[in-house]
Amino acid sequence: MLKILNTKLLIAILAVLAAIASAAIYQHHEAAKAAALLEQQQRDTERRRQEDEAFRKKVEENKKRHNSAAGNEGKTWKSYIP
Q: Could you give the CA distance from residue 51 to residue 47 in angstroms, rounded to a whole number?
């Protein structure tokens, strides 16, 4: 009778240890997924920031190019002879 009780107790202890181990493994896996997701978001944010900066530079270049023609507009209509 004592041997059966000891066996059942041992099985219960092993089941609890297995549950604790599986919970620890699951938590580690979820933490790794969260870290990978955070890293991906940081890369995406950095890429978007670089794209935004390139777009701003392009807009500034276009603005300078188009504004230079507007600065000479006054001279053209005054010297125009039909």
A: 6
Q: What is the residue extent of each domain of the chain?
A: 32-67
Quote the DSSP letter at residue 82.
Answer: -
How far apart, in whole angstroms, are the C-alpha atoms of residue 55 and residue 59?
A: 6
- Tell me the per-residue pLDDT of 25-80, one tens digit each, with 9 for 90 and over: 999 999 999 999 999 999 999 999 999 999 999 998 888 777 655 555 556 666 66
What is the predicted pLDDT for the residue at 12? 97
Q: What share of the chain is helix, strand, coil (3-state, %, to 5)?
A: 95, 0, 5
Question: Which token pair is 15?
Answer: 């089941």
Q: Choose among 47, 51, 50, 27: nearest CA to 39.
A: 47
Q: How far apart are CA 10 and CA 4, in angstroms?
A: 10
